[in-house]
Structures are given as structure tokens and as C-alpha cells.
Amino acid sequence: MESKETSKKRFYLKWPWNVLVYIILVVLLRIFAIPVILLIMWWNKKQQPDGPEEGYCLQRIRGRLTGLIWAALCLAGGGLAIWFFLAVQTMPYEMERLKEEISFGYYLIPVAGAAAILVGLFLAYRSLRDALAPEKSALAQSIRDQLPYPDEAPPVKELFAMVDQDLKTNGQWCGKLGVGREWVLGDEVSSISRIRGVFSREEHHTRRAGKRTQAVHIYEIWIVDDRRKRQVTSLRSRKELEEAMDCLRRRAPAAVFGVYDSREYKDLVYTEEDEQQYAQERAYRQRQAQFEEQERKEQERLAQNQVLTLPDGSVTSRITGDTIYQMLRQPDETGEPAPFQLVPGVPFQGQGHTFSRLACLAGGAAQPTRILMEEYSGTPGTPGQYAWTRDVSAGEAEEVLQGWLRGEIPSLENWTKMERSGRTWQPLDGGSAGAAATPPQPHPDWPWLLTVGGNSGSTSDFGWSDVEKALRALNQEADSYLILEQKDPQSPETCWFLQCAVARQGPDQGSYSVEIGFTTPDGSRLWEWVTPDVQEVINDFSDAYYHRGLDVSGFREAEI
Amino acid sequence: MGRFFSDPVEQALKYIYYDLRAGRGQEGFQLLQQAVQDGDADACCLLARCLYGPEYTWPGHKFPQDEQAGDALMRRSVLEGSAIGALLSLRCGVMDRQLAQSMPMTLQEAFDTVLDKAEHGEPLCQMIVGNAYYWGDFPEIQGKTREDFGSDDAVQSYLRENYAKCEDWLWKSMRSGNSGGVNLANFYREGKPGLIPPRPERAVEVYRYGAEQGDPAYLFYYANELYDQGKKGEAFGFYRNAAEAGEPRAFFWAGYSYELGDGVPKDNVQAAQYYQQALSAPIQEKVNPANRLGMFYYDGHGVERDYAKAFQLLKWAEDHGGPAMLYYLGACYANGQGTQQDYARAFTYLDRIDWNCHPAFYLLGKMYCNGLGVPTDIAKGVEYLQKAGDYVEVKEELSHYKKTLFGKWVRR
């Protein structure tokens, strides 16, 4: 259920209305606007569960507008200092006293004020530049720096889209640090393939001012790239820092991980000699190769996602193109059709359906190969109700099977849709209409007789193990058959039988042909069912022998 | 003509009973078949024993099993006048009244003939005589009934005296090189209730003696004894010796010792080969090798990783009464490895794990958090994930959830 919630666009305050609302709130409520603004920000975020609509990068640079607060503080501080200095100039007594008390400091007041104003102006410029002119933002520049040819970088919109797409698809967030498969978005952007070192910085500084103790905590992640450039991102807590380190360990496993200002950090950042830099790069490449090998093995493990069942009942999930080729060509060597099936661990979709099994009766080069793809029932372990089948050449079969191994379904245009009927299939739009007569069950009281081809006569002195053994011994020879029979003790011409032989020719060659027959003085009727699986035959005979209710749904009446 | 039987029969006896290490049981079987075709009555009953199943000879021979054909051969042997056939048919239950009346000699005459050969040193005859005493066939052979004794004490005395004779004959048989003297150990272990007390310490002597002779079956029995006594390292050595000599019942244990690296360098390839041999051997106990090999296939230890084979073996072992490898079966179902993905079934296995199994906790955590096979319960899922150890995938899964200010776990 793709919920309406996710498909329907939710309302939220878009840029720049959100900023406008915040400004109005500040003007109206002053300091009390802060909790309201935080609440609106939280709500806005909640309304965009799939990430900010304008993209992570644009949101990040627009967030730089908060720099205006610092700019305003600087400007106000600087303005106050200059105003104070000019005001004192008009009062000679006060001026003399201040000169005496703070001497040189007095002349620093206008300088500091001017400096604060300049800083404020710079911060304001930077914030407005980042927010209003993304192409000139520091973030855009950091992305360009990570590209192989920064001068040929695409427009900023494409740059941001590149990073946004990766983060949207693969992103993991640790505070404001977003880690994708290719990019890391923090205060700056890093390309994961260029990361050579990741270092955590955690420092705590305390400052005493009179009776007050002020603590400053620094949590930063330092990413060093292959050009020894550093991208620093500030985080809010140790937890965020640890999460970010773990996340980067997974995404850039070959990089050096450590603590800021450690020996590893200094080795990586301050190495000047080419030889040492080359050695570091070589070590990185070796680690990268090891991780890629591990990844390859893991992919190989994950690729074992299907079970191939061979005619002898053996199974394997080590399926390659060669395996399929050999299976399809096996009839050319043995002269017998080779039934096998492929079952994916997780049913997969294609052509608007979900499929859970492919059964194949390989005919080799001489005979067509029959392929049947079964639709998933929706419940594991429950057979599907529909299937598509088609007779194809060995070459086409190989193509279909190779595609199946990749989770691809061919166009079903020329395939026949089938519907399950017991243990067999019948065409959905064909077949006999109306209720077909079903074969009768064996009589509960009539004695059993067993006839095994090759042995002389029938016997009533046998047990189930004899029947099972004889069924397993059936082969394609002319005298190889088995009949389990009942005769009415009162009227011996009335009999019921279940017989089995292995088809020696035709499309079902090699399969077991099972027949139920019922003879009365009025005539005889015969029902037939074909299966490649001897176990199914044994189950049927067992159900009949022990009167457990023989499943006759797969049997079709045959003309005598 | 041999000293006691025809040449082919004597040769066959050597291959089938006296020299197991030679691994020429099949040749012996063919010699017996040929001798049967040539009308050798002794060969008939010996071939019948081969067809009765591995417990009558040795599992390492891998003889085909066909009880009906065995019975027919045994009857033929009796009717054609084989003395050992008469005693063996009595032992295996083929001797009925009709057959007894049709046989050309009495049981006592047959016994005397076999006894004569036994006294002259024929090991199989020594075993047959010993078994006739051990299994209590002697009253029927001697035609004794309760009425022949004046009192219960006389009966007890008669039985005690005759049962005890088995000890000497079975020892003789063993010392002559016959491997089929397991009843001697059984005699010591169990005694005869009310008549002869058990002496289990002497049973161990029997096994040790057989093992010292290099008999594969006794190497296995002796290893079992040592294992039961807690001397696992020593036992594993004997299991390996037995397996190397072809004893199928020791294959699993030899493989297990290689898997553990107990008394031998750890070697998963060798272990997997022994497990495979155990699975294709004519023995009953196959669930343990199936489970171990299933785990090997799952982990890719000693064999190439193959989930389908792993699942097939593990499920087979469970369906045949073996202990369910809860994590492995759960993981197969949860990940769709070797079988179709089925979280509900995976849960039935994983939920039963009551030890510290990190990968299982990870799977349970993932299933609870995502409502796979169980109702969604992020708090419970996170609890499992937090117990699942310091692994990359665990951390990645955990990173999808966070705790709210009110202490509730929610998806990020």
C-alpha cells in the first residue's frame, strides 16, 4: 500500500516564506519567537519525510542565513563601540579619565569597533552570497574541488543534484553530516573515492570567569582527501561523532581512521616527500583492493539466490551460465529429456507479475524445450495458481533461463497462460468446459492385487514396501510397469486399478504416466496423469493403498 | 578344497570376516555368489548373512540388502545339508518346524560338525558355537526341555554352565582373527540376568584387544568406550584410525575431530570429506554428519559455499529426528538462502535460540523492526539489535531507528 500520505504532497513553509515568517515572529515576539521558530522548523521537517524538496545542498546553504545573526551582533557591537568613542570625545573630563585608566585601550575602542563592523559585513556578505547566489557558495566550491577537473565542473544545479541524489538514495545522517555512497555532505562536501583519512576531534575546554565556569565542547570530524585538503564538519555530540565515524568506516573502509592531531593524522596531512606520499597511496590502494575482494566474495554469496533442482533430486545454488547450458544440452548426450527447476529465494517481479518458480523440460537440439514460469501465490510454500508456458528452442531457452537468473522475465506475448489443476496445469482459455468426470477412489474393502511387469502373474502377498520398491525400479523398458488392482469379490469383472509406466517416447518421454481405470460390466473408463517426479507417483500409490483419499484432481479422462 | 570349507568359501570368509582392512569384501561377496551357483550349501548361508544387512557382517562392505533372498538362500543351505547353515538359520529365525523336519541332519549333528571345525581352529565356526551358547540356542540344539530337569535349580545350573561356555569360544574366535565377536563384549557388559553377573570392565578389554589387532570395527567400539569415559582426545585418535581402515560408523567422528582440530591439525576439507562419506555409508546414524556438512556448505568451510545443499542437508537432518540447527535453518528461511524466503518459518527457528547468537539476534532485530514474519515491534527489534554485537550491518540497521524524548523507539 503506497500510502496516500507519501504520495500526496504535504504543505510546508517554502523558501523564502519560512524566513519571512521567522523575521516577522522575531519582530513581534522578540526572544519569545525562538521556541515558536524551532517548532515551525520541526514541523516543516516533518512535512518533508523524503528530505527537503529543494535538496540537501540548497537547504544547507540557505541555512547559512543564520550567519546574519552573528553578523548583526558584530555590527551592533562595532557600532556601539564607535558610538561610545565618539560620545566620549564630546566629554573632555571623561575622556581624560578614561585615557588615564585604560591608556592604550582607549585608542583600541574605535579600531575594535571598526573591525567588528568589517567582520559583521563579511559575515553578512557571506551568508547572503551563499543563500542568494548558490553558484558562488563555499559549498558549491567544495564540490567543484572534489571533481577531477574543477574548471570543467557542470552548473551548480547539476552539482547539487549529484550530491542530493546520492544522499537521497543512500544517505545516512549523523547530525548534520550526511553520508551517501559517493558523497559526504557536512559543512563542506567530500567525494568518498578521494577520502584518505577520517579523524575525530573531541576536545573539552573550561574557562573560569569569576565564580562561573564555562565549558566548551568541540566535536568535529576531519576528512582528509587525496590532495591533503581537509574538510571539517562540526557536530553536536559525541554520539553524533561516533556514529559519523562508524558510518564513514563502512563507506570508506580503506581510508585511515584515527584521532585528530594523532601521529596518523600528522603523517597523512603533513607529509611533504613524494616518496612517502606515494607509499601512503600504495598502502591505500592495497587496502582498497582487499576490501573490494571481500565485497566481491560477499556479492558472490548473495548471488546464490536460486535453487536448481536436478532430475535426481539433488540441488545446488551454485548456478552459472555453464550449468544452464549443460542442463539444456543434456538430452543430446543421454537421449532423454532432462527436467529441472529453478526456484529463487525471493520471488521477483517482471512483466507485471511476481514469479516464484521456473520448471524446464529440456529437449536438447532435437526436441523443443518446454519452459513453465509459475506465478507467486503470495504465501511462501503455497503453489501458485497461474503459470506461463512455452515450447522454445535450446537457444531461446538458454536466453530465457539466463534472464531468469538475473531476475528478468521475458515478454509473455507468445506464452500460454495456464491455471493450476491439482498437480498439473491446463490452459486458462482452453481445455474442457464444465465439470469433467472425476475418477473413482479405490474400494475400501476389496483386496489388493499387485502386478509388476517382468514378473509372472499377480500376487496378493505383498506389502507397501514391495509397491514402493517396484515403482522406484520402473524404467523405459517395454515390460516395465506396475498395476495395483482391486476386483469386486462378488463380481470379478468389476475392477479398479492404478497403474504406472515410464513413457518411452513422445513429449512426455521419461516421465511417469499414471492411469486410473475403472471397469464395470457396462464398460471401462480411464483417467491419465503424467509427472516427471517418481515421488509424486509413490505418494499417489501410497494414498490409494492406504485409502487415504487419492488426489485425482490432476487426472484427465482419456479415450480408450 | 580348503581345510574346513571349499576354497572359494574360505577365501570369501577371509575377505568378509577375518581381514576387514583389506577392503576386499565385494570380492568375497562375488566368490560366495559364484559358489552358490556352483551348488555350495555353506556358501548359501554365508551369502544369506551378507544379504541380511550390515549388522550381520560389517557396514564397510556395503553389501546389498535383501532379506527375502537371504531367507531363500538360508533355507536352501539347510536343505542341502550345511551344518553352519542349520545353526545360522536357527539363529536368524528361518528355522521353522517344517524346515527342521526337512533338513538332512539334526541340529545336534549340525552342532557337532561345527564344533569339530571350531575345535580345529576355524574362527567362524568358533563364533557360531560361541553364539549358540551366548544366545541360548543350546537347549533346542540338545533337545532339552524343562521336563528333563528335576528342579529349577538344575535348570539354572544347566543354563549357567552353558551360557558361560560362550566366553571361551568367542575369545577363541577373536584370537583366531574373526571380527564378528561383538557378542563377547555384550556378554561381559550385560551378563545373563539371574545367572551370570555383568563384568563391564572386561568388555573394554575385548574392545581394546580387537583395536590392538587393528580391526576397524573394534577400533570404533574402543573409541566409543574412551569417548564415554571422557577421554575425547584419545577417542578421536581411534576414530580416525577406524575411519582410515574403512569403518563407516567412525566417519562422522573422524570428521568431527578434524573440524575441531582435536589431536590433529584442524582441516575442514578433510572433515567435510568424512562427513560426506558418512552420509553415503550404509549406516543408520546420518543426522549428525548431515547437520555438520549442512553448516559447512552454509559457511563455505571445507567445501564451496552452496546454500541449496546446506538447506537440503539441514532440513533432512531435522526431518529425520536430528537436532534442528536453529540459527542456520532460521537464516536460510529469513534470507531466502537455499529455499524460498519465509520469515514466519524463520521466526519459528530463531525464536527458539536461547544462547548468545549474535547473527540470530541481528535477524530477529531486523524482523521485529520491519514486521517481517512478526508484528512490528521496533523497541523489541532494537533490543535484539543491541544484543547483536558490534558489527557493521547491525550498526547500519540500528541507525534507522531513534529514541524519542518520551523514550519510544521510532524509525528515523
Structure description:
The complex is a heterodimer of chains A (560) and B (412). With 560 residues, chain A is of the alpha+beta class. Chain A folds into four domains: 12-138, no CATH class; 156-270, PH-domain like; 306-427, no CATH class; 448-558, no CATH class. In chain A, 40% of the residues lie in helices and 26% in strands. Chain A has helices at residues 4-7, 17-29, 33-46, 56-62, 67-89, 92-102, 104-132, 138-146, 156-170, 238-251, 263-270, 274-303, 321-334, 394-405, 464-472, 534-545, and strands at residues 172-174, 177-179, 183-185, 189-191, 195-209, 212-225, 230-235, 256-259, 306-309, 315-316, 338-344, 348-350, 353-362, 369-375, 386-392, 416-421, 424-427, 448-452, 458-459, 481-487, 495-502, 512-520, 523-531, 556-558. In chain A, strands 9, 10, 11, 12, 13, 14, 15, 16 and 17 form a nine-stranded antiparallel beta sheet that branches. Chain A has a seven-stranded antiparallel beta sheet with strand order 19-18-20-21-22-23-24, covered by helices on one side. A four-stranded antiparallel beta sheet of chain A has the order 1-2-3-4. In chain A, α2 (17-29) packs antiparallel against α3. The radius of gyration of chain A is 40 Å and the shape is elongated. Among the domains of chain B are: 1-105, no CATH class; 286-352, Alpha Horseshoe (Serine Threonine Protein Phosphatase 5, Tetratricopeptide repeat), CATH 1.25.40.10; 356-412, no CATH class. Chain B has a two-stranded antiparallel ribbon with strand order 1-2. In chain B, β1 and β2 form a beta hairpin. The radius of gyration of chain B is 29 Å and the shape is elongated. At the A-B interface, β1, α10 and β10 of A face α18 and α23 of B.
